[in-house]
């Protein structure tokens, strides 16, 4: 039963893992307002998620709410932050340091969520050898060699779509075990590689469609 | 039956809308390689989506595959691009032009997918009055006034989480009908407002968890 405390290593359903940061964002707000307790019903009202779902999601954590009072806000902030891994340092490299990649290197938000980008890699001679916010940009062909000393846990993939698979292959050859894929291309990887797809442009398609439909409704 | 041609205004399921850009990315590759036809079975192999699902998704488009030959690649690229709205110009404003917002303004990828950011808005006096890649940054309190001439369809929300709801309220008051929410905060909006949540930091939580679990498996 000792394993129960070791919650950070349980394999959680992806929808749960995506909701937990919403709860964290909300309880951080409450904490800033010096509110001491919050119930899953209150969180439910704010976040638009069913309160029984919230209780279930939070049951993965090493925290218990008190009947009629709810969860202690401070503890919830701490447990969620720990649990989500936002306090650990995860070393990452940026593969493709062009427009999107360069932009992400400059986003200090990532470091607030536990991700430190230590190097960028590209094919473009005009940016190889330069640096973005003190992050050096190297030739993509140096990835395997540099990785020996960098020992990055995660590679962020932000290359043009036609180079996505090639770049992913280079990442895997270098020994990096996780790829955060910002391209709209579904890269193929061995099953031991962790893949997270974040194609922000695909979200645009959803928004455009909803806007068109709502325009139509007004006609 | 004339409505059938007017496919871009059908309300599509969100999973379909998120998959269509993957197909587009792939058929653009094929097109660049001068490949003329592709079957849903071939797409399925590349994209890791069931071929019957692909055929179903593509049935929303104004395109028909030929038996045993498949879809014409050129036509598929054109229809998908049109259908997804990536060729129309959607005017957007950036609310919060700090680290992430500033980075997104610099991402030319967005304009390739039909989104033009014409202005940024912030509360920080040190960036109000400046510009990022020729996009002027105004005071957030000028949003309603500026919107009269800008007439933006979409507001991109990239403010610190504690200001997310306030900023969303200002967006709605200005008359903008769609919010692309990059904060991890679940903002509350009237039902006529189109919301798309893209909390990239929530994806980090998924990746961190999977990495921890795979480390454990190796012990």
Explained architecture:
Two copies of one chain form a homodimer. The first copy, chain A, is an alpha/beta fold and 219 residues long. Chain A is 44% helix and 17% strand. Chain A contains nine helices and nine strands. The first copy, chain A, has helices at 14-32, 40-47, 51-58, 73-84, 99-106, 109-112, 143-150, 164-173, 200-218; strands at 37-38, 71-72, 90-95, 115-122, 131-132, 135-139, 154-157, 178-181, 194-197. A seven-stranded mixed sheet of chain A has the order 5-6-4-3-7-8-9. In chain A, strand 5 and strand 6 (135-139) form a beta hairpin. In chain A, helix 1 (14-32) crosses helix 4 (73-84) and helix 2 crosses helix 3 (51-58). Chain A is globular, with a radius of gyration of 21 Å. Residues 1-8 of chain A have low confidence and may be disordered.
In spatial order, strands of the major sheet of chain A run 5-6-4-3-7-8-9
Shape of chain A: globular
Number of helices of chain A: 9
> Which H/E pattern describes the elements of chain A?
HEHHEHEHHEEEHEHEEH
Helix-residue proportion of chain A: 40-55%
Summing up helix and strand content along with how strands pair, one would put the structural category of chain A as alpha/beta
- Spatial separation of the terminal alpha carbons of chain A: 62 Å
Q: Report the average pLDDT across residues of chain A.
A: 90
Count of β-strands of chain A: 9
Radius of gyration of chain A: 21 Å
Q: Oligomer, anyone?
A: homodimer
| Biggest interface | A-B, 74 and 74 residues
